[in-house]
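Please produce the structure of this protein holding NDP.
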Amino acid sequence: MSKAEIGLIGLGTMGAALALNIADNGFDIAVWNRTTSTTKKFFDGAGDLAPRITPTETLRELVEAIAEPRAIILMVPAGQAVDDQIKALRPLLGPNDLLIDAGNANFHDTNRRAREADDLPFLGIGVSGGEEGARFGPSIMGGGKREYWDRVAHILTAISAKHNETPCATWMGEEGAGHFVKAVHNGIEYADMQMIAEVYGIMRDGLGHDNAAMAEIFARWDRGPLQSYLIEISGKVAGAVDPKTGQPMLDLIVDAAGQKGTGRWTAIEAQHLAAPIPAIEAAVVARNLSSQRDMRQLGEDVFGTAPQLIADGVLDIETLEKALIAGKILCYAQGFGMISKASDEFGWSLPLPDIAKVWRAGCIIRSSMLDDMATALEANATQNLMFAPFFSELLKENQTALRQVVSLSATHGLPAPALSSALAYFDTMRTSRGTANMIQGQRDFFGAHGFERTDDGSSDQHGPWAMNA
Ligand code: NDP
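Below is the modeled complex.
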């Protein structure tokens, strides 16, 4: 029997879907799972694809089922499970065999694993698109030595999503570059979702719209500039009916958002890099606050119900759509700004236009706007996206709407942290004379930290504080 071209460990939600996708694209694959009954169940359910799949019961059997030099994908939970799996596998492998961690690893772990692997081939790849993406075409962000990527690129590009025939699978750079780009993707995903949730809240509590009306609005927006997977599914979520009770499903879902930590990693890393991503940070904070349900109930008891209806005719749906367009541009500008900063900091030369391209299909944040972002970044990869002519025009057109929505939210007690932070970012980024002179004055007053003068440019200057004390 001929040997498999690739192996995969971890037949959970993502691993099983990825293995079927690989087989579906004509590659023979050997699989192994910690719990053998899962492997059997997976193989029994593989249908027409079974002839391309070799199920195995031990790691040794798995290794022997794959042609040399081997390539094995790990699709197990990020963290210790990956380290344990690498430790168990390495002694069974030859020096040319490639291990590919395709889970959601923290990129610092991938950096470490790449170094620990020394000369042994190792790749860390970010895979986005959830179970459906993994089965029918994910977006893939590769990291590690280019030569190792090239060894498996034909498989990874074949199984990836396609945007007008272009595969959404790209090598991003050395070591943890792929997992870093995936983390920023997830951070942007948090902010995109949060802004949509805020607009949903304004429609529900400020405008009194029912779920069916909101489903229709999201569906309409999905045919305009906001066209995206997240807007599409938001409409479907808003329109769904609970089969058990006949009530709108959305009304029966507890308002406490879960998270696996990738948004938090992005926010923490942004602080280390001094890369401002306030919309993403606001989205992470909003998820944390959402889980403080008892505290929010106490707040409502003490201060009274906050949201008030916005009077008829004061806020129309088009203004909300425009606010979301502006918010989205500012959020992506921040995400790409962070990638650019990391690229310099880590010496990765991250390909910003290719990153926008790889996100155009297959992943959770796929949207038509990413196509325009790819074009803008191709013209100038180093400038903040908000200054690219196409997007600066859109911001000029839509910033008033964002301002209206944020101010109406504030006056009506409707929380809109991500949209508000996006507006504050916009206003900060278009103010050449800011207010940090006051901060510098304070710092010099209490700590003699020194400041730079505006008149003669001299640095390390001190104020006459003692004279004015
Ligand atoms: P699941 O929980 O569905 O599956 C986990 C798999 O890993 C199972 O096959 C499990 O085996 C195996 N496993 C768990 N612990 C160990 C261990 N210590 N040693 C060996 N095998 C182990 O997870 P997912 O498929 O959802 O996620 C896998 C990876 O993909 C994660 O890193 C996740 O963050 C990432 N990811 C997930 C996405 C999603 O939408 N779900 C999207 C993108 C990435 P067993 O059957 O024995 O329990």
